[in-house]
Amino acid sequence: MTESGEKQEPKVDYTKAPVVLAANHVSKHFKLPTEQATGLKQAFINWTKGIKGYRQQQVLKDISFEVHQGEFFGIVGRNGGGKSTLLKIISQIYYPNQGSISVKGKLVPFIELGVGFNPELTGRENVYLNGSLLGFTAEEVDAMYDDIVSFAELEDFMDQKLKNYSSGMQVRLAFSVAIKAQGDILVLDEVLAVGDEAFQRKCDEFFTEIKKDANKTVILVTHDMDSVRKYCSRAMMIADGEVEAIGDPETVSQQYTLANLNAEEAVEQQKREERGGYPNGLNERCPILRTYAISPRICKSSDTFRFAVEYQYDEPDDFYIAIALHDIRRGGISYDTGMKTFKMKDHGHHVAVFDIPLNIFNNGEFRLIASLRIPNPNDDQQTDAVGVAVDENACTFVIQDERNRNYALLSDRALTMTQVDDSIINI
Fold first, then answer.
1. Where in the chain is the domain with CATH 3.40.50.300?
2. How many other CB atoms are there within 10 angstroms of residue 365's CB atom?
3. Fewest CB within 10 angstroms: 4, 159, 247, 281, which?
4. H helices then E strands: how many in the chain?
5. CATH superfamily, domain at 284-399
6. Which of 163, 147, 144 is nearest to 155 (CA)?
7. pLDDT at 192 over 90
8. pTM, full prediction
9. Per-residue pLDDT tens for 212-224?
């Protein structure tokens, strides 16, 4: 049982199952043109000068891993890391420059929605066309056809031309062909958010069921860490064409989240360097003000998040530190300490440490923004901001807890609604 009282699925040791897909020291590069020879003469001149006319981009570097039968295997990584290239090699769309991929069983790739569909053909004809492209015979497609159409909920439209379908109908049909095809290994690239809400619920039920089938193997590339934690038995993170981490989905998803946070901070730092002078929000009176994490930046609701505010204020006036908690995913300010809550005693360059309990929050991504404030000369209840710690000087952290939901800000432990007895009023 989990802490929330839900029944926890027993963990399966997939290492005892046979290996159905293995990548052995796979490397892949592409040649990107740098200059174009306009004729034989220019091509000869370039050759004599040693100008190749292209540069080599190394996309994958010595990738090795194994996937066992029955696994739901996740592949994550930031854009440009090599995930989609790896999937295309697995699907035999690309071939590696070095190394090899071995597959045991029927592999059904679903790399891009609607690839292979012909808008001039009917929905029925497109199902058979896609089936043949995936390597199925007409008889095999016959056996799968009813399941495909039923899942897509398009029984009344299969004899209409695809060009008359809405975009949502086309997505449902393409996705249904992929997941209902009777393959042994299903390869999916960023497709868990297809269709409307009702269709997504149906897909969720499908993936929950397919996890229980010991003969079906799924390889999923996604940026959605909730899906990785929910569905995957193992996960792998690729960064700069190399395997950065492989193993427990929770650990891998946390490493991916940290990589995103670090990348965002690097972008903000670059912007600061390009601007020159004081960071955004700061000035000569308040040249230093930044908020940074002391605790790990990926937390559970049971944690207390500890952070620090570094500041420099040399003027003799009274001054305060105010802190606002911003909800990045949902938007808005979740909490604000108030303008005069923390009166600082020490002028000059110092660090103040703060704690924030997280037990009332659901999962999410949050940002702490500090401001240094002085009393307003005209209103003793107000303060004026001298500096604000924004961009790279703000502190971002993430709450990930299996007890929580992702939608609302407050957890069920913080707030529950109850129906009052005899509360139905007849009018």
1. 14-259
2. 18
3. 159
4. 8, 19
5. abc- transporter (atp binding component) like domain (2.70.50.60)
6. 147
7. no
8. 0.69
9. 888 889 998 888 8
Q: What is the pLDDT of residues 314-348, one digit of tens each?
A: 999 899 999 999 999 899 999 999 877 899 999 99
Q: Is 305 helix (H, G, I), strand (E, B) or coil?
A: strand
Angstrom distances, CA of residue 356 to CA of 297, 303, 323: 13, 9, 11
DSSP category for residue 161? B
How many Å apart are CA 9 and CA 214, to the nearest integer? 14
> Of residues 84 and 423, which shows the higher confidence score?
84
**pLDDT tens figures, 93-152:** 889 999 999 999 888 887 766 667 888 999 999 999 888 887 888 998 899 899 999 888
Q: What is the pLDDT of residue 198?
A: 74
Contacts of 150 (CB under 8 A, 6+ apart): none
| β-bridge partners, 32 | 55
CATH 2.70.50.60 intervals, the chain: 284-399
Residues 6+ apart with CB under 8 A from 270: none
* Three-state SS at 331: coil
Write 287-291 long-range contacts (CB < 8 A, 24+).
287/312, 288/312, 288/349, 289/370, 289/371, 289/372, 289/387, 289/388, 289/389, 289/393, 290/370, 290/389, 290/392, 290/393, 291/323, 291/368, 291/369, 291/370, 291/389, 291/393, 291/394, 291/395
What span, in angstroms and rounded, lies between the C-alpha atoms of 369 and 387?
Answer: 11
